[in-house]
Amino acid sequence: MARSKVWLSLVAFMLTTALLLAGCNSNKSPQEALKAAMIKSAEMKSYSFKGSMKIEDLSFQADGADAEQTKAMLSMFKDTDISWTGAYKADPMHVEMTLSLAMKGDMAVNFNIPIIMEKEKMWVKIPNIPFFPLPQDMVGKFLELDLKKMAEESGEPMPNLDPGKSQKFANDILAIIFNNVDEKQYLSDVKVKDAGLPEGNDVKQVIRFQVNKDQVEPFANTVVEKIAPEIIDLLSKNAEYRDMLGLKQEDLDQAKKELGDTKKEDITKGMEEFKKAVKTLEVTANVGIDAKEYPVYSDMHVKASVDAEGDAVTFAFKVVSETKDINKDVKLEYPEGPKDVVTMEQFEQQMGGAFGTDAPAQGSEN
């Protein structure tokens, strides 16, 4: 009897362990995981973030008078690293971000540009740029952009710069895309240790999206036949999204009509031109999801070479983005906005004086 109890206990222990291990490894399918992460991201009311963009390759081959000038300009961009750090708070909406640019080579220069954004105002810290000298009494101050005032003066609707609403819109768009693409063709699960993620991340599952030149045509057909019509319907039903993008219903009606008039042979003809011009194309994107199903990491790696009418361009770049401190008290340096500011009117007057010209008064006619 005692021996039976021991065996029963041992079997129960093994079954419990097996169930726990199964639970630890029962990741959702790539499509399900992405949908869950998009829904979860709508719950992000505050977070800190950082990211970077690295141009890995950029070359241009062409003949003509402007070819050398174009090559020189592209070379400058090739040696430029861009990165950013910041924090976001939804209520009241407040974003702080520092954009950093590092240019290497003969014109080596580094500068940081802090940017602050609220619902109706935006501030950009005026940097000290060696090759574009600005009046020293302005350098280090924040240029204030009154978005509401600028919209009233232009007669256009005020731009909606709320990252929370933009995130929700992006989620709805991605949901439409993922609902219509072939999961097996474009999406896959990747082991976290094999995804090339930076150290110190909280990622538990990585979903990879891949598309190459040969996959573009079926994807384009899906866009025209399914994805684009659903996106237009989404915008037609959501006035908030239309206002955010500055679209009118008649714009959407026209787009839907043109989409309906697009024939299969039109797509085929366009793809033939695409295949002739685009020699190679590889797009790989990873989305890292944490244990709470928040999307906390993403990267995108693009490689392509294009040859159109004798002008050949080869480029490769990688963009990385990380999100942390979700729904925590994030550190804000200017929670009430900056104090040392320069209005747009003052900036225009100062710049006019710096170049020996009189800046026109705001709203005056030429």
Low-confidence stretches: 1-26, 355-366
Order of helices and strands: HHEHEEEEEHHHEEHHHHEEEEH
Strand content of the residues, in percent? 25-35%
Shape: globular
Calculate the mean pLDDT score and round it. 82
Q: What's the count of strands? A: 12
Straight-line N-to-C gap: 103 Å
CA radius of gyration:
26 Å
Major beta-sheet overview: 12 strands, mixed
Approximate helicity band: 25-40%
Classification by helices and strands: alpha+beta
Q: Which oligomeric form is depicted?
A: single chain
Domain module tally:
1
Query: How many helices?
Result: 11
**Lateral strand order in the biggest sheet:** 7-8-9-10-11-1-2-3-4-5-6-12
Report on the architecture of this protein.
The radius of gyration is 26 Å and the shape is globular. Helix content is 39%, strand content 31%. The chain has one domain (38-354). It contains eleven helices and twelve strands. A twelve-stranded mixed sheet has the order 7-8-9-10-11-1-2-3-4-5-6-12. Helix 7 (216-237) packs across helix 10. A hairpin with a 2-residue loop joins strand 10 (295-308) and strand 11 (311-324).
